[in-house]
């Protein structure tokens, strides 16, 4: 109990003192996570729409892969990306390992399947009759998709929120591909791991409050966006 | 309609994040590749694979800025167990190593993966355990103490992660011709020193640790030093660079500078003074050849 209070005190202290390092770590966390979610969203929603509305040979198999991917352990993602980016690996010549870019890659790998999968199921749940009606009214393909997206907005935003949750909570891969380098790839989750291993529980606790506040703010904004215009 | 605007606005905002994040990394890489021929003036990344003890004790936070300032490099310290650090060296994934497992290091030198290996410093291992010392090993010699712990079936927490500390522990068991696993209270954490100490404190077990990590964490632990000062317990750190002839992507110039930096007098003085103020005793002792 003492530790909790201590942690809270430390968190407030850290915020008031405006420690540039804390600010830097938080800023990097935010930047990396949002970038990853954004890219996942841009790729994931169209992919989910296609998977949800069309049928092609091998579609079910792709779906199985996506569904496995939704539970992809971050350390597995981290390990794969590490090997890809190693100097001796296929992308080695770009020296991307231990950079924020590598963390973003790993986070995309774990969040993309979630966004694709949830978007896809949202579109599949749609009423067939509505689809027919839209077609009957002579909508072009693009118009159809736009109408449908509006229809399943709530589910799509739920997909984005879930993807963001996955990304902001991620630590195993970020540790592996980022290396927790001070001032370069140290993000909130990896610094919490480090502070715990150093025995600095108060600092770790303070950072955890910071991380949760960050997650709260973003999720709050996204949820508001999702629940807007809600009548019921 | 309004909703759509807000949504697109936020998307644009995120896009800007992305641009900044991406452009940073691309800038770095492109400049890195272009500048390779005239590396002298450009800041280049040097990957230092090292053990958790150097990071967790805070020594790197002091040394690295010093080195970066005088050498125009950007050091990326990857703090892992010695096992992983050595493996990174063997694969050419690191430029320079700062580790403490002399036998395994020698293998790397023999295989031609590492060159320019220099002794830097030592700290010592200590055997710590619960303050009430249920096995009664306080003040014993290391071998004796290990034997007693084994016979009593005392709770012993091992790193179990192939690190220098773990290797040291295994050497001691081996010299006594004991299999630690036969003791049912023997447990392996597979984690770094800091976490292993926490586990040991929680389980009220005995554990072998480097002095630096112990001192740095002493406050939050309920463990006391029981055996120390034995010759067998020296923990010697070496620095070495990865052979550029065997691994063509290593940044050998920076690595060589780092080796020189670690053994020069000024750095050695900093190492000696490090931690004196905070803990009342040094954490590392200069020990060059």
From TrEMBL, chain A:
Subcellular localization: Cell membrane; Membrane
Main location: membrane
GO biological process: transmembrane transport
Pfam families: BPD_transp_1
Protein name stated in the entry: Tungstate transporter permease
Organism: Cytobacillus solani
ABC transmembrane type-1 domain span: 26-222
Alphabetic keyword roster: Membrane, Transmembrane, Transmembrane helix, Transport
CDD domains the record matches: TM_PBP2 (cd06261)
InterPro entries: ABC_perm_TupB-like, MetI-like, MetI-like_sf
Transmembrane segments: 32-54, 61-86, 98-123, 154-181, 201-222
GO cellular component labels: plasma membrane
UniProtKB/TrEMBL annotation, chain B:
Signal peptide region: 1-23
Domain of life: Bacteria
PROSITE patterns from the UniProt entry: PROKAR_LIPOPROTEIN (PS51257)
One Pfam family hit: PBP_like_2
InterPro entries, per the entry: ABC-Tungstate_binding, PBP_domain
Entry keyword annotation includes Signal: yes
Keywords: Signal
Domain PBP: 41-266
Protein name per the record: Tungsten ABC transporter substrate-binding protein
Organism of provenance: Cytobacillus solani
Taxonomic lineage of the native organism: Bacteria, Bacillati, Bacillota, Bacilli, Bacillales
């Amino acid at each position: 109990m003492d530790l909790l209070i201590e942690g809270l005190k430390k968190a407030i202290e850290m915020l008031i003192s405006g420690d540039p390092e804390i600010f830097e770590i938080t800023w990097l966390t935010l930047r990396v996570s949002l970038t990853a979610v954004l890219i996942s969203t841009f790729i994931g929603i169209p992919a989910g729409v296609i998977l949800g509305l069309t049928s092609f040979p091998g579609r079910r198999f792709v779906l199985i892969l996506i569904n496995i991917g939704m539970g992809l352990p971050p350390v597995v993602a981290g390990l794969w990306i590490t090997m890809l980016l190693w100097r001796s690996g296929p992308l080695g010549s770009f020296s991307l390992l231990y950079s924020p870019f590598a963390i973003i890659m790993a986070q995309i790998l774990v969040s993309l399947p979630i966004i694709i999968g949830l978007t896809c199921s949202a579109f599949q749940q749609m009423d067939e009759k509505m689809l027919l009606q839209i077609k009957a009214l002579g909508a072009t393909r693009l118009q159809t998709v736009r109408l449908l997206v509006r229809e399943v907005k709530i589910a799509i935003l739920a997909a984005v929120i879930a993807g963001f949750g996955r990304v902001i909570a991620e630590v195993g891969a970020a540790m592996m591909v980022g290396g927790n380098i001070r001032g370069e790839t140290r993000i909130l989750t990896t610094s919490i791991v480090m502070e715990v291993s150093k025995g600095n529980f108060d600092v770790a606790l303070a950072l955890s409050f910071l991380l949760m506040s960050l997650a709260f703010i973003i999720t709050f904004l996204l949820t508001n966006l999702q629940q807007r215009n809600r009548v019921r | 309609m309004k909703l759509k605007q807000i949504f697109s606005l936020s998307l644009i905002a995120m896009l800007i994040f992305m641009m900044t994040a991406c452009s940073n990394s691309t800038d770095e890489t492109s400049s890195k590749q272009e500048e390779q021929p005239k590396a002298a003036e450009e800041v280049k990344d040097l990957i230092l694979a090292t053990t958790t003890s150097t990071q967790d004790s805070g020594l790197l936070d002091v040394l690295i800025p010093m080195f970066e300032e005088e050498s125009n490099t950007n050091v990326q310290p990857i703090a892992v167990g010695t096992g992983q650090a050595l493996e990174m060296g063997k694969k050419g994934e690191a430029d320079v190593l700062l580790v403490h497992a002399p036998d395994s290091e020698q293998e790397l030198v023999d295989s031609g993966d590492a060159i320019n290996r220099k002794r830097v410093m030592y700290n010592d291992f200590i055997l710590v355990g619960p303050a009430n010392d249920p096995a009664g090993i306080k003040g014993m010699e290391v071998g004796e103490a290990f034997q007693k712990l084994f016979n009593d079936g005392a709770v012993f927490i091992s790193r179990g992660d192939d690190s220098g500390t773990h290797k040291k522990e295994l050497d001691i068991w081996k010299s006594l011709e004991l299999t630690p696993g036969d003791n049912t209270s023997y447990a392996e954490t597979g984690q770094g020193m800091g976490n292993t100490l926490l586990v040991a404190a929680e389980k009220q077990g005995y554990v072998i640790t480097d002095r630096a990590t112990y001192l740095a964490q002493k406050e939050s632990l309920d463990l006391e030093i029981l055996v120390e000062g034995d010759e067998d317990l020296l923990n010697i750190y070496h620095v070495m660079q990865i052979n550029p002839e065997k691994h063509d992507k290593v940044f050998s110039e920076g690595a060589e500078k780092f080796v020189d930096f670690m053994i020069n007098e000024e750095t050695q003085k900093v190492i000696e003074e490090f931690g004196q103020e905070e803990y009342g005793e040094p954490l590392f002792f200069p020990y060059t050849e």
